[in-house]
Design a protein that fits this description.
two-stranded parallel ribbon, Rossmann fold, 5 helices, alpha/beta, 173 residues
Length: 173
């Protein structure tokens, strides 16, 4: 679906002579079952993607990069904010089961992106595409923290306690 939708949007943009195309991808394409932080946009991708989602997002990126249209790609990490229908609701669903599994004893580092920052970055890319020195951008709030600290902050903001349970990384799907 990611590939088909992206290709359909690219085809429509080219047909309608839209001057620029900003594509939202995902840093999931880098995932290789190891802790990673500060991944540069030009980092090599794993030989095998962790799941179909990551594989199809990588293929969609290839199509954007090869299309005959001025384009840029953004890879925001863990989008949260006022209209979040994914990240925080998923955390709440897992926590409702009684415990929140964490890897590396909660020390695994994460860096997320506020939805307003993602929207602003996309607008800036669209408005300044001719001046971009690169075409792919990883985006976070540049505030890396241990997942345990992030979870504590999220659940404290919602007034909910959370119990964490350390899980071996080998159990990650």
């Amino acid at each position: 679906m990611n590939v088909t939708v992206t290709q359909n949007r690219l085809d429509a943009a080219i047909t309608e002579k839209v001057p620029r195309f900003v594509h939202m991808s995902t840093p999931s394409i880098y995932f290789d079952h190891s802790d990673q932080l500060n991944i540069p946009e030009h980092a090599a991708l794993p030989a095998h993607f962790v799941n179909v989602y990551a594989a199809t997002k990588a293929e969609a990126e290839k199509r954007v990069m090869n299309a005959p249209i001025a384009s840029a790609i953004i890879r925001p990490r863990g989008i949260f904010g006022k209209f979040d229908t994914v990240l925080v609701p998923r955390l709440l669903k897992v926590a409702a089961k009684g415990t929140m599994p964490v890897f590396n004893h909660g020390r695994a580092m994460v860096d997320v992106a506020y939805g307003g920052n993602v929207a602003a970055a996309m607008m800036a890319m669209d408005q300044r595409m001719e001046n971009l020195s690169q075409r792919i951008f990883n985006l976070t709030n540049d505030e890396p923290m241990a997942i345990a600290i992030l979870l504590d902050k999220v659940f404290a903001a919602m007034g909910q306690p959370v119990k964490r349970r350390s899980m071996p990384f080998a159990l990650w799907p």
